[in-house]
Amino acid sequence: MRVTLVGPTHPYKGGVAQHTTMLAEHLAEAGHRVDLLSWSAQYPKRLYPGELELDESRTEATFPGTRRALAWYDPTSWWRSAAGPASDADLVVLSVVNGFQVPAYAAIMKRVRRHGARVVALCHNVKPHEADPLQQRLLKWLLGSVDGVLVHSEVEAGTARSVGVAAPVVARLP
Q: How many domains, the chain?
């Protein structure tokens, strides 16, 4: 299967970036053709001051062929990023962390679906940690627009159901 993962990855620090990279590695080891599309700028630094630290010291943590082409401030990057390998994917997995990513993900989803790709939201947070009504509305729209929703716990599955997701799939982390 041709899979494109979209989300934060190395050199961003943190569990979501590590998870995205490890998922790419495991899918490739299982025989899938994997492309990893990441961010050059995830969101405005003022939103999360001090939390967007990069770790450039571990080059071995970079998945081969990772494209860091997405920028929150550049809508043309969203559209261009969905070209190439992503437009040839059977499955596109969006690593969902917060609502600020939704406009970019919506553009990618629109383009890849033209080529028949299924789109799954891998939700690290079904609802944002911050009580931000705009983020909550954006995430609810995204989860209602994808072909499937994947979460990591029954609690998150319940949260997904509470925002209208009919059948979230739970994949517990080892």
A: 2
